[in-house]
Design brief:
By secondary structure, the protein is of the alpha/beta class. The protein has 11 helices and 6 strands. The chain is globular, with a radius of gyration of 18 Å. The protein starts with 9 loop residues before the first strand and ends with a helix.
Length: 266
């Protein structure tokens, strides 16, 4: 937003055959929690893009960006809503500049979990941030829309603490905050893990550690975390185009009630 060049890494898939006038319509896929280390970027592991074959057959260019700051210079902006949303829109823009991709200006956004937050922020920011794109609709699947309910609640239980560890670990760098206000010695000692391991390992890493070792204070009632949690929740601002929310009622990580509340806000 400050006129500086931003790094975006993404995979771009193009249908076979000639493009229609104006280029192919575009679907941007925003992946779920991968981790904070650059090696966790889905483009580096050729991670699956769900339904990519069907989308290509239906005539869409598919753009699968890595999350903001993931696999590029600088820290990962995990669950930093504005940065994640901008990265989704920047990926669509970059695809339009890619020779031979024939990506058009009609863009649909599709995200899962943390990528659901990214897609929703993108839909709310698109008109101002990327007015040259026409956002035709957004699908958010089990989105992290209430970060306090996601990371704040995750911080209260060793089984889910890894998600809080990734969230607040990323925010420590994004916002230059002090984790000693909320994390205990058992969590602080493990911070180097964020630069080495990916989400599948970190998510379960603390399962056998006592919560007293992990959590010093509840981030949902501790400054500056209260304000940061609120800032990165999906608010009631209007989106460009309609929104489809998809949520399992038995989801152990994303509270279904948070998605119901999101639908009411929107």
């Amino acid at each position: 937003g400050e006129g500086r060049t931003t790094w975006v890494t993404a995979r771009v898939f193009r249908p076979v055959g000639p493009a229609p006038d104006g280029g192919f319509p575009v679907v941007v896929w925003a992946h779920g929690t991968a981790g904070l280390a650059d090696r966790c970027a889905p483009s580096r592991s050729a991670a699956t893009v769900p339904g990519v074959t069907n989308l290509l057959r239906a005539g869409f260019v598919v753009v699968a960006p890595d999350g903001a700051g993931l696999g590029t210079p600088g820290p990962a902006a995990y669950l930093v809503g504005a940065s994640e949303g901008h990265a989704v829109l920047d990926a669509a823009r970059a695809a339009r500049q890619l020779p031979g991709a024939d990506a058009g200006a009609d863009v649909a956004l599709w995200g899962y979990s943390s990528g659901g937050q990214a897609a929703l922020f993108a839909a709310q920011e698109a008109q101002e941030y990327a007015p040259e794109l026409s956002i035709v609709g957004t699908a958010a699947v089990a989105p992290v829309s209430d970060v306090a309910r996601f990371a704040g609640v995750a911080a209260s239980c060793p089984l889910t603490f890894g998600y809080a560890f990734m969230t607040f670990g990323a925010w420590r760098e994004a916002y230059r905050t002090d984790l000693t206000t909320i994390f205990g010695p058992g969590a602080l000692a493990e911070l180097p893990l964020l630069r080495e391991a990916c989400a599948n390992e970190i998510a379960v890493h603390f399962a056998l550690t006592s919560i007293e070792q992990l959590r010093l204070a509840d981030p949902t009632v501790t400054d500056p975390w209260v304000e940061l949690l609120a800032r990165n929740g999906v608010g009631p601002e209007p989106t460009s185009g309609p929104v489809l929310l998809v949520q399992g009622t038995d989801d152990p990580i994303i509270d279904p009630a948070s998605t119901d509340a999101l639908a009411q806000r929107l």
